[in-house]
Design a protein that fits this description.
487 residues, alpha+beta, 6-stranded mixed sheet, 4-stranded antiparallel sheet, 21 helices, 46% helix, globular
Length: 487
């Protein structure tokens, strides 16, 4: 790797490539095949201080003759967000469509803008209409809560009592990670698609997890023989969604506004069931890949801080009206939301990419056309000058103090970017917050949950595995919880 100031011709110190390689940006130079690891992010700050004089100047990486610009400053990121004419995200979406197996005719149809806005950009509008606060999101959350409550009932949680303790059949131990996934992914599946999708494809969620666990291999273009589990899960999900879209509409009621509207537009454009399935499968992936991981980490951190845990429980107890959880009350709970944001600060591995389609000024530099641009966000979240001391530790109160006071996730600092920004600002951020907070409130109302082993360490973040969302735990690291019914 060759690192350089833009247009300055300065050579890097010999240690810089090796250290930054731990941050990491890894590039397949033959295509727009970018895989990103931004961990361990704290290593980036001393580099920026010593070599770039803390200016956070844009810099470039040249690999095998292909240049990529790295943007680390929130101010520069804001400039990138505002520029949708010469900085494009479209190449990344096209690459994902091809990786998921969209047919050439399906790809052409999705990007056809001869009659106005193409279907890809229409889909983005529909995402926002569905997932921004309003009637469509409210309707979605009502459906989500119904399924969440069903999957959190006693019979489900204690099904077959696989880990019942002695004669105490109303006490059980299970993996917190698996529990969060077992509730949130099926709940979202039903809320978005109705009961038919899971009803006719009972292995859908297991296949999704098989894919999601190694989904980074898809963007790395791993050969099939090295990524068989991932490809099997992806293809099984494609078949499941294809069967779903081959059903008559009256045989699959309950789909949300986005699914019904997008399918209608794709049908009008002449797209076939399999291609519709693949484009919607992408939506299913990004919708479900992060919420259960956020929930797992949030609860893990709380269980390791009993004082904070009890304070959060007190807040959530006040968020029930006539036995039903009230989402608006959850969103007004300061400590609960601060804990959610602190969890994102610690565990988000988000990054965003653009293609430079024409020469583009940035600060006093000029970005060259036909190059790529990357904005790693994780490195922003570990600045002591912004977030205070002990930035590697879970301290939600940092979001309740001074300039970083938050309510509903509206942090005042531009350095907090767990959901990205601009045209790639995650439209699922509102539903993710709501479903995670609702899970926490419902769980603590129905069960006493504690660490099965109070001496167990907090699982390690799997920083070796590339991710564009929330980082999962190292395989084999668990948070095992003791569950006792309260009601």
């Amino acid at each position: 790797m060759l690192f350089s100031y833009l247009e300055h011709g300065l050579g890097p110190p010999s240690w810089l490539p090796g250290v930054f390689a731990l941050v990491v940006v890894e590039i397949q130079a033959s295509s727009f095949d970018i895989s990103v690891r931004t961990q361990p992010a704290p290593l980036l700050d001393p580099i920026l201080r010593e070599y770039f004089n803390s200016s956070r100047e844009p810099f470039s990486i040249t690999v095998a003759g292909e240049m990529m610009y790295i943007i680390t400053s929130p101010q520069d990121m804001s400039a990138v967000y505002k520029n949708t004419k010469t900085l494009s995200f479209d190449d990344f979406i096209r690459d994902l469509h091809l990786s998921f197996g969209l047919s050439p005719s399906g790809l052409a149809t999705m990007w056809d803008d001869s009659h106005g806005k193409c279907l890809v950009h229409q889909a983005n509008d529909l995402h926002h209409a569905q997932l921004q606060p309003g009637e469509h999101l409210d309707d979605l959350m009502q459906k989500l809560l119904v399924v969440m409550e069903r999957r959190l009932n006693f019979d489900r949680v204690f099904a077959e009592k696989p880990n019942a303790i002695g004669d105490q059949s109303e006490r059980t131990i299970r993996s917190l990670y698996d529990w969060c996934a077992d509730v949130l992914v099926p709940a979202a599946s039903v809320a978005f698609f109705g009961e038919a999708l899971l009803g006719m494809n009972p292995e859908l969620v297991d296949d999704f997890h098989a894919f999601d666990e190694d989904s980074w291999m898809l963007t790395y273009r791993y050969p099939r023989f090295l990524a068989q589990k991932m490809h099997h899960g992806r293809e099984a999900n494609t078949r499941a969604f294809t069967r779903y879209f081959e059903l008559a509409l009256e045989d699959r009621p309950g789909a949300c506004y986005y699914v019904k509207s997008f399918e209608s537009r794709q049908r009008q454009a002449g797209m076939k069931a399999r291609d519709i399935a693949i484009t919607v499968q992408l939506f299913y992936w990004v919708t479900n890949a992060n919420a259960y991981k956020i929930c797992f980490w949030l609860l893990t951190y709380l269980l390791h801080q009993p004082t904070t845990l009890e304070a959060v429980k007190m807040e959530t107890q006040a968020c029930f009206v006539d036995g039903k959880v009230n989402i608006d009350s959850l969103l007004r709970s300061p400590l609960l939301n601060a804990a959610f944001d602190e969890t994102l600060r610690l565990t988000s591995g988000a990054a965003s990419a653009r293609t430079v389609v024409a020469p583009t000024p940035l600060r006093s530099k000029m970005l060259r056309a036909s190059t790529k641009l990357l904005m790693p966000y994780r490195q922003l979240h570990f600045q002591e000058s912004v977030f205070g001391p002990r930035v590697k530790e879970f301290h939600p109160h940092r979001f309740l103090l001074g300039d970083h006071k938050t309510l509903g996730g509206k942090s005042s600092t531009p350095d907090f970017k767990p959901f990205g920004g601009g045209i790639t600002y995650c439209s699922g951020r509102f539903v993710a917050r709501r479903e995670v907070l609702a899970f926490v409130a419902l769980m603590f109302r129905r069960y006493e949950v504690s660490l099965a082993d109070p001496g167990e360490a907090i699982p390690r973040l799997d920083e070796r595995k590339p991710t564009l969302g929330v980082i999962g735990p190292v395989k084999g690291d668990e948070t095992m919880v003791l569950i006792v019914p309260r009601i």
